[in-house]
Amino acid sequence: MLDAAGSAGRAAQPEDQRRGSGDDPARPAGEPSERASQRHRHHRDHDPTPPHDLELTARRRRIADAVPGFFPPAELAALVAAAERAPAGGGWLVELGAYCGRSTIALGSVAADRGLYLLSVDHHRGSIEQRPPFPWADPRVRDGDLGTIDSLGTLRDALRLAALEEVVVAWVGTNLALASWARPLAGLVLIDGGHDALNAHLDLELARSLLVPGGLLCIHDVYEDPRDGGQAPWRVLVAALHLGFQLVARHGSLAVLEAGR
Ligand code: MG
After folding, report:
1. Distance 13 CA to ligand 1 centre (A)
2. pLDDT, position 42
3. Rounded to an integer, what distance in angstroms lies between the CA atom of residue 38 and that of residue 166?
4. Quick one: which of 72, 75, 84 has its CA closest to 108?
5. What's the Cα-to-Cα distance from 98 to each of 8, 166, 191, rounded to whole Å?
6. Distance CA 98, CA 141 (A)
7. Does the pLDDT of residue 1 top 80, yes or no?
8. Has residue 29 got a pLDDT over 60?
9. Cα of 198 to ligand 1 centre, how many Å?
């Protein structure tokens, strides 16, 4: 709101009106005055992001580590590092697959520090392997009335504790529905949703629709060896390389790729 008010105030400055009318004999019509160009330089150079609150950032990182989930702290730190250097794009970071919010809090913390938003996409009914009878089904994330997984409540609690409710927007629905809405707005997309082949590849297509040129694509749970884990994320990585993405970092099972410019 402050930015909008500031812009409105600047638009009404007399020298802007003079520039519009071109009535300065020393300057051709339409050419900005020196003062105006200095002001624009100042405005452009001014860091629009909110002051970096180190204590709050540290608290958010602690909350991220405490939320139930499958992101090891070292890989979460690598994800944060990627988000810190990703292009601002259209002002968004995106995660496909949130579960209880471990990566959501980590990415949301970076988004808050950089003045960006995070779109957090999940149907919150758990991916196949997070439902009974699989061993990753967590009874803490079960809706007692419906008998289904419900990770949304835990995510919302975590967002509130981390003071990120104004930064993170939760899309509670499927990747298919989002695909018809997607625009290239994101400087970074994390793929960490359903690890079955169909959903993993749908998420890759969705990520390609969302990423800006030069944006970072992060893929979690990449295991070349089937003895270490499911193969869909690995195949998504291979597909992404064939589609022109460049691998820029690997940290455990997290792969970071860069989109073409
Ligand atoms: Mg994962």
Report:
1. 52
2. 42
3. 33
4. 84
5. 38, 17, 10
6. 13
7. no
8. no
9. 16
Which residue is it, tokens 């995510």? Answer: 155
Amino acid at 190: L
As a whole number, mean pLDDT of residues 177-204 equals 95
DSSP 128: G
Catalytic residues: 195
Task: Measure 192 CA to ligand 1 centroid, in angstroms.
Answer: 5
Q: Exposed, middle or buried by CB within 10 Å (0-12, 13-18, 19+), for 181?
A: exposed
Tokens of 156: 């919302």
Which residues have CB atoms below 5 A from the ion given as ligand 1?
70, 192, 220-221
Distance 260 CA to ligand 1 centre (A): 25
CA proximity to 131, closest of 121, 143, 145, 122 = 143
Percentage of the chain beyond pLDDT 90 is 66
CA of 132 to the centre of ligand 1 (A): 18
pTM of this structure: 0.78
| Residue 30: band (very low, low, confident or very high) from pLDDT cuts 50, 70, 90 | very low
Longest dimension (CA), the chain: 80
Q: Are 158 and 105 in contact (CB under 8 A)?
A: yes
pLDDT at 242: 98
Residue type, 151: S
Neighbour tally for 2: CB within 10 Å: 6
The DSSP 8-state label assigned to residue 31 in this structure reads P
Mean pLDDT for 184-210 is 96
Residue with tokens 């250097």, as numbered in its chain: 85
Residues 6+ apart with CB under 8 A from 68: 99, 100, 102, 138, 140, 141, 154
